[in-house]
Amino acid sequence: MIEVRDLTKRFGGVEALGGISFTVRAGEVVGFLGPNGAGKTTTLRILAGVFPPSSGVVRIAGRDPLVEPLACRRAVGYFPEYAPFYPELGVAEYLGFVARLKRIPRARRRSEVARVLAACGLEDVARRRVGTLSKGYRQRVGLAQALCGDPPILVLDEPTIGLDPGQVDEIRALIGGLRGERTVLFSSHILSEVERLCERVIVIARGRLAGEGTPAELGERLAGAQRVWLRVDAPAGAAAAALRALATVHGVVPADGGFHVEGAGPDLARTVGEAMRAGGWAVLELSRETLDLEEVFRRLVTTR
Amino acid sequence: MIALLRKELALYFTSPLFYALAAVFLALGGWFFYTNLSFYVLMGGMNLPLGFWQFQFFDLRQLLLVLVPLLTMRLFAEERKLGTLELLWTYPLRDVEIIAGKFLACLTVVGALLLGTGLHPLLVAPHQAVALGPLAAGYLGLALLGAACVACGLFLSALTDSQLIAGASTYGLLLLFWVLTWNEAAVGAGALRVLKPFSLFDRFETFALGAIDTRDVSYLVLFTLAFLGFTFLALDSRRWRGLR
User: Which residue of chain B comes nearest to A101, CA vs CA?
Assistant: First the structure.
């Protein structure tokens, strides 16, 4: 449904996209991951028709947006980051406006607005002004306008950003409910969210493709690396030397009276603990550290 | 386009700004009407070169200059600030339709306000016959001048995400077109011949006198179309450069 080949985008002298290629098949829910500034939003905006690429090929349901812009835009429902809205318009009034802009015939307009209101749980606030709604509701209004007109493809930019956990769950359930019926490409910088929702993940970093596969495949690739935090009662230098001598340890970084120990294998903590015991030192703290996302991406990029 | 027109009108009629502007416009229009009328009733015996309605039209022209930038400044600047322009670009909608929808919505509002001044001839009619021809010419002139001002404001609003900058620059540009030939002595005769045709507000004078000169009609229409074209280019260029 979505095909992208060698996509580049330059803003003046700044290269936002350095040539990325991927495809999204019909009915797939695909996560688009990357650190901030990786080019996620730029890619999604190009797909939604906000602006054209500098070079490269885009096909939306087999059509070229440069040749048939209106047909492509009709096929795509787009949710922009931060869900912009007109504060003065009522929810139903706004969605009616969107339905008209998307050229839904008059006869079906009312039922279409009712459908998306129900799908996004907005019936109770249909008459309220968008500006008076909470962030979670506004986000749902943004999703409702994307769903309006029942487009086969949905492009969602960070649909859960800035929401509290309960609201995040609701939005995720909503996206999960679209599975199979629509082709969904949504961006996120939260790995677990993407893991839960997507069959496939595309990772980009610095405007280039950094990885692609099922969440399990990407997870495996990352399982090779682990990090633990260690504080130990040992003479200066001795513990570090003992750690560096271990075959599975790749790096030891002293910090705050302890060490960040990086290494391979699922049993890194056990290996480190046993090495300390062998040295006769008391372990004060030993815990597994989760790699933050920036690091996951950095690894994905550098391990290629 | 109709959908966008309706949305713009809905936004105008739900905003307090519109009602404040309408109140100012109609109150000042009424004040001009009252003072001009008193002037004529009291001094009617003097051999004045211009009629009552001419004075009235010149005053309304001034009001139009005050009013229009405040109505046009939000058209694109606000959408850009809110980020909704990005969304608009993802709907199956041509840029031309976006521009036409906004232009026509604003023109409708200006038209509605001008219609409000239609009360004045109605008040005079029972006491004194009102010549309909010249009156119609005057209102046509006001409408065309209004369209030109709206197009100019629309263009400047498309260039910025600040309503204040859009409004201020519209005042600047419209004033420039007005005062182009203000000080006729300061510009040479040759320059005056070149500048004179461009003076937006001079063009209105023939309308106010009750005449419809096709040269003035075509100038105002071309001025409007040119600025609508500039708006299109401004949007298109910003879009290609990835500016929202």
Answer: B3
In terms of CA atoms, which chain A residue is nearest residue B93? A70
Q: What is the pLDDT of residue A304?
A: 42
Percent composition of chain B: helix, strand, coil (DSSP 3-state, to 5): 80, 0, 20
- Residues A111, A260, single domain; the answer is no
- pTM listed for this prediction: 0.81
> For A102, which of B2, B82, B92 is closest by C-beta distance?
B92
**A209 within 8 A of A203, measured Cβ to Cβ:** yes
CB pairs under 8 A between A and B: 76
Read off the pLDDT of residues B95-149 as tens digits, 9 standing for 90 and up.
999 999 999 999 999 999 999 998 888 888 888 788 888 889 999 999 999 999 9
Cβ atoms within 10 Å of A75's Cβ, excluding its own? 22
Q: Which domain holds residue A276?
A: 224-302
Q: Reduce the DSSP state of residue B179 to 3 states and report it.
A: helix
- Cβ of B90 within 8 Å of Cβ of A48? The answer is yes
CB distance A89–B2 less than 8 Å? Answer: no
pLDDT of residue A167 exceeding 90, the answer is no
Q: Assess whether A298 and A191 both reside in one domain.
A: no
Q: What's the structural domain count of chain B?
A: 1
The answer to whether residues A232 and A292 belong to one domain is: yes
Please answer yes or no on whether A89 and B7 come within 8 Å at the CB atom.
yes
**Contact present, A260 and A253 (Cβ < 8 Å):** yes
Q: pLDDT tens across B93-106, in order?
A: 889 999 999 999 99
Q: Which residues constitute the domain of residue B173? A: 2-240
Nearest residue in B to A96, CA atom: B3
Q: Are residues A161 and A284 in the same domain?
A: no
Residues in chain A: 304
Residue B195 has pLDDT above 80, yes or no: no
